[in-house]
Amino acid sequence: MTVKIHYQENVDSQLIRGRKVAVIGYGSQGHAHSLNLADSGVEVAVGLRPSSPSVNAAREAGLDVRTPAEAAEWADLVMMLVPDQHMSDVYRDDVAPHLQPGDALFFAHGFNIHFGEIEPPDGVDVAMVAPKGPGHLVRRTYEEGSGVPALVAVDKDASGSAMDLAISYADAIGATRAGVLETTFREETETDLFGEQVILCGGVSELVKASFETLVDAGYAPESAYFECLHELKLIVDLLYEGGLGWMRHSVSDTAEYGDFTRGPRIVTDETRAEMRRILAEVQSGQFASEWLAEHRSGATNLAEYRAQDAQHPIEEVGGRLRSLMPFMNPKSPPGESK
Ligand code: NAD
Ligand code: MG
């Protein structure tokens, strides 16, 4: 199966300029989309609750800030950029009452449409523009004259031009400078959830903790274990990003490469692969989505507990200390922690 990829040259960049775009939310994606759209000459309003801590930031950035309902009423294209678990409430209360035939409803992730949490009315285009990177990168690369690649998909093509509109939106946030890939809501949603669970977040976090614990339990200094099992991961990931597995293996020593080929398969075993397939099945069946939404609706107490537990992990203590000695790496910490 070949994928259609769109670049700047072949895009109707004017289509989005004929629209009034409401960006609901001003977090990671919301700030990047609204600022890039505005800088591309698109009419934008940001929809935020009056109590939102982001109101001032958005106003200071020169954006037109309204309540989510006012923004949705004013707009003829609404981009939903609030957290996925809050999205169906925001949609029901603030957006749905203002959707009219001819309007478009956009998403940056297929979750709520694919799992049926949001059911838009007939006559409305339903499409996705999902940058394959965090918002700060979407904004920074745009300012630098490049962009982050994005996925586009159409769930409902009421106008007959929903895909062109999505590509035009992607163009205005800078994504066609890097490449815009056509996909479906199902493929984006299921691969995204699988990826974050099995490798990007879940798989990597557990490998980092387990390898750190193995070294520390064997009597090695936590500082050495931190550098080996967490810090150096970035160097390897950068090589993978630049040139795939081959480039990474070309760049590391032959000793590292031999260890990679002979020991890697002992870490990711047939049992691990079987578990990956079970996790994929839970994503596909909607079991994961139901579990996560039930967790959210019951106050997300387990999530808070998981966060608190891992904040206590020794790798976080030693890491916080070591990073503070390396100010050049511009260390960060999650809200609520001083590290
Ligand atoms: P975020 O948590 O960074 O930001 C959410 C924003 O929504 C904040 O401004 C918050 O104040 C606002 N908000 C929260 N609850 C609200 C409510 N009830 N009413 C109105 N506003 C509310 O979220 P994000 O990471 O930017 O995610 C937005 C969407 O983009 C999601 O669908 C997500 O899956 C998708 N996405 C995120 C990334 C990423 O890297 N962060 C990448 C691609 C797609
Ligand atoms: Mg993702």
> How do the helices and strands follow one another from N- to C-terminus?
EEHEHEHEHEHEHEHEHHHHHHHHH
Number of extended strands: 9
- Helical fraction equals 55-70%
Biggest beta sheet attributes: 9 strands, mixed
Small ligands present: nicotinamide-adenine-dinucleotide, magnesium ion
Estimate the global geometry from the Cα principal axes.
Answer: globular
Q: Please mark out the parts with pLDDT under 50 across 5 or more consecutive residues, or reply none.
A: none
Distance between the termini: 47 Å
In short:
By secondary structure, the chain is α/β, with parallel strands linked by helices.
Q: What can you tell me about this protein's structure?
A:
With 339 residues, the protein is α/β, with parallel strands linked by helices. Helix content is 55%, strand content 12%. It contains 16 helices and nine strands. Strand 6 (104-107), helix 5 (111-114) and strand 7 (125-131) form a beta-alpha-beta unit. Helix 3 crosses helix 4 and helix 9 (202-217) packs antiparallel against helix 10. The model has no long low-confidence stretch (mean pLDDT 97).
Task: Summarize the SSE layout with pairings.
Elements: E1 5-6, E2 20-24, H1 28-39, E3 43-47, H2 54-60, E4 64-66, H3 68-74, E5 77-80, H4 84-95, E6 104-107, H5 111-114, E7 125-131, H6 135-144, E8 150-156, H7 162-172, E9 180-182, H8 185-200, H9 202-217, H10 222-231, H11 233-251, H12 254-267, H13 270-285, H14 287-297, H15 301-311, H16 314-324
Parallel strand pairs: 2-3, 2-5, 3-4, 5-6, 6-7, 8-9
Antiparallel strand pairs: 1-9, 7-8
Helix pairs in contact: 1-6, 3-4, 8-9, 8-13, 9-10
This protein binds nicotinamide-adenine-dinucleotide and magnesium ion (MG).
The site of nicotinamide-adenine-dinucleotide has 23 residues, from α1, α4 and β7.
